[in-house]
């Protein structure tokens, strides 16, 4: 795959290689692509979480249910 980048971006990549952040321009570009792909996957997961949240808005929260359970447990363990 051949990719053309702006001269400014190329200079920045070359500077990262010069500072030994990456062994080569190829390594720097591959890392950038890995990060881009990971970011896009996170966006997809965030979108799915938002869909689930919207679909469960009317349901009680887990925290509320835990508190209810604890309150019932306290009442039962306190005795008469």
Topology:
Elements lengths: L6 H12 L6 H31 L6 H17 L2
Question: Gist?
Answer:
By secondary structure, the protein is mainly alpha-helical. It contains 3 helices and no strands.
Task: Give an overview of the whole structure.
The protein has 3 helices and no strands. The protein has helices at residues 7-18, 25-55, 62-78. It starts with 6 loop residues before the first helix and ends with a helix. By secondary structure, the protein is an all-alpha fold.
* Structure class: mainly alpha
Helical amount: over 70%
Largest sheet: none
Overall shape: elongated
Chain-averaged pLDDT: 89
Distance between the termini: 77 Å
Gyration radius, to the nearest Å? 26 Å
Give the total of domains: 1
Poorly predicted spans = none
The total strand number stands at 0
Query: What series of H and E elements makes up the topology?
Result: HHH
DSSP helical segment count: 3
Indicate the proportion of strand residues.
Answer: under 5%
